[in-house]
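haha ok so turns out i had the wrong file open the whole time. this is the CORRECT one, sorry everyone. sequence first:
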Amino acid sequence: MKVLTLLRYALLAPLAFAAFVSTPAFAQTEIIIRQAPPPQRVEVVPVERPGYAWDRGHWRWEGQGYAWVPGHWQPVMRNARWEPGHWEAHGPNWYWREGHWVR
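then structure:
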């Protein structure tokens, strides 16, 4: 009986640890609206800055309508590329996908 209990804990401990490790440290708010964003604005990309990636400007939903958010620099993450945030259409709804680093 004691051996079975020890074996059970030995098998459950790594699973519990994996559950804590794989849980994301942040929660992204999902924005879903029915009004399409305006056309993308033309932005002049500044001269490259070492150690930074340019995050282009985008339209942000403000509850009553869209507001333009100008582009800005993101500190570079090693061995990753920046995937800019963007709006995706799925049927009549528009979803905002936050920018993130892709490894």
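Confidence is low (pLDDT under 50) at residues 17-26.
again sry for the mixup
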